[in-house]
Amino acid sequence: MNRLSNIIIVLTLMMSVIVSSCRVVYDVTDNLLRNFDTPAKVKNRIKEPIKPGVKLSALWIGHATVLIQMEDKVIITDPFLTDHIAEVQHRVIEPGININDLKQCDIILISHSHPDHLNFGSLRILEEKFPNANLVFPEPVKEFLPDLSFKFRPLKKPRQDKKVYIGETKIIDSVKITSVAAYHYGGRYGLDGVLWGYDGFCGFILEYKGSTVYFSGDTDYTESFSKYLGENYDIDVEFIPIGPCTDCHELDKKNRHVYPRGALKILDDTKAKLMVPVHYGTIAELSPPNYPRDVLIEMIDEEPGYKDRVKILKIGEQVILK
User: Fold this and answer.
1) 3-state class of 68 per DSSP?
2) DSSP 278-321
3) In whole angstroms, what is the distance from residue 39 CA to residue 112 CA?
4) Where are the strands (E) in 151-273, listed by range?
5) Which residue intervals of 35-143 are DSSP H helices?
6) Taking a C-beta distance cutoff of 8 angstroms, is the pair 216, 203 a contact?
7) In contact, 220 and 183? CB cutoff 8 Å
8) Confidence check: pLDDT of 218 > 60
9) Cis upstream peptide for 244 (omega within 30°)
10) Rounded CA separation 222/250 (Å)
11) How far apart are CA 115 and CA 86, in angstroms?
């Protein structure tokens, strides 16, 4: 069965089971049409993303995928490097790096098992170049992982439902990695997580040679947890999702996704030096790809104090922090 036939079948099933809103119809139709298109090009991709002498940098590859350099260590978050997610959702813009330009990858973080974060094709791409990389993930994700050559490094999951915000801390390739709470849902396809309670999701705190990074994964805004991070960690940079959202001016969708206003509240509570918004601009879901960013810019314009604390990157852009 060819690729187009698969898409038509998926489209038909989705339409018959869940379609009741014009927004969903728009998203499905938009992604179907993208099957006949190619993602937009990233102009002037960085050829040497890993640089000598850099203590801390971040390059946004797109969606929730960030290339982080912490001194001599290279970390990639929730890698999405292919042109599509499960052949249903298609990129509107290509990845922010050419994988052939990446010469090092020590640690790969997987925050949860949804296909836009645990992307099998992308892991295969990285496995071919970096077979000995460390794959770090919350323990319940293991049942969804394919057979890979990476060094599997599962971490215990926090019990955020009991206000236990820390799961486990391990030193992995000299980097101190802590699994921290997230407010989302597990499973592989969404519905299975809601119905059967798969709970394989978390965020991560990375500490190495005087730098601290927070990667939230998908989460909502939970004040007590964000303040806990602010009281216990001196965060240099954090990567917080701002989409998808239908009304991006709201705070969040509980146990789903934080929106721009919630991301700014996380920034306030965690007291991070810098926040980089992610999880928008790469695929069409619930809203036009860059709508969450536009709302965030509007909110920052209303509160000028955020201008120096939020760095909105273009896909393929890199910020050097130290």
Assistant:
1) strand
2) ES-SSB-BSB-TTHHHHHHHHHHHHSGGGTTTB--PPTT-EEE-
3) 25
4) 151-155, 166-172, 175-180, 203-208, 211-215, 237-241, 252-253, 257-258
5) 120-129
6) yes
7) yes
8) yes
9) yes
10) 14
11) 7
Enter the tokens of residue 230: 């602010």
Alpha helices in 38-136 (DSSP H): 120-129
Model confidence pLDDT, tens digit, residues 76-128: 999 999 998 866 788 999 999 999 999 999 999 999 998 999 999 999 999 99
Query: Looking at the chain, how many residues does it have?
Result: 322
The pLDDT tens digits of the residues spanning 169-192 come to 999 999 999 999 999 877 676 655
Rounded CA gap, 120 and 188, in Å? 12
Token pair of 71 as six digits: 């001194």
Distance CA 14, CA 128 (A): 34
Dihedral angle computed from the Cα positions of residues 255, 306, 238 and 113, in that order, rounded to the nearest 10 degrees: 30
Cα–chain center distance at 281: 12
Type and span of the H or E element at 135: strand 134-138
Are 69 and 51 contacting, i.e. CB atoms less than 8 angstroms apart?
yes
Measure CA of the first residue to CA of the last residue in the chain; give whole Å: 51
- In angstroms, the CA 88 to CA 25 distance is 13
